[in-house]
Amino acid sequence: MKPIYYFIASGLSIALSIYMFVFGTSPNHEAVGIFIGLWAPTIIGIGIYNELINIYEELLLQRREREKEREYEKVRK
C-alpha cells in the first residue's frame, strides 16, 4: 500500500476524533473521541512498518542478485 494512504487514514482519524469529541451526542462522546484519536499514531506506525519491510525485501533481492552474479563469474573463470 502506498504511504499516502496511511497518512490520509490517520488524518481522517484525527478529523473524526475531533468531530466526535466536540459534536458527539452519546454520554461518553469525549472518551470515544479520544479513543478514535489514538488510531492515528497506530495507523502511521503500521505504515512505517510496511515501508521498512518493503525496503528490507528490496535489499534482500539486490543481495541475491549480486550473489548470483558472483557465482556466474566464478563458473565462467
Q: Which key features would you list for this structure?
A:
mainly alpha, 3 helices, 77 residues
Molecular structure report:
- The mean pLDDT is 94.
- The protein has helices at residues 3-23, 29-37, 39-76.
- The radius of gyration is 22 Å and the shape is rod-shaped.
- By secondary structure, the protein is an all-alpha fold.
- 88% of the residues lie in helices and 0% in strands.
- Helix 1 packs antiparallel against helix 2 (29-37) and helix 1 runs antiparallel to helix 3 (39-76).
- The protein has one domain (3-76).
- 4% of the residues are buried.
Helix residue percentage: over 70%
User: Which descriptor suits the 3D outline?
Assistant: rod-shaped
Number of distinct helices: 3
Q: Mean pLDDT, as a whole number?
A: 94
Summed up, the domain count is 1
Span from first to last CA?
A: 44 Å
Short description:
This protein has 77 residues and is mainly α.
Please describe the topology of this protein:
Layout: H1 3-23, H2 29-37, H3 39-76
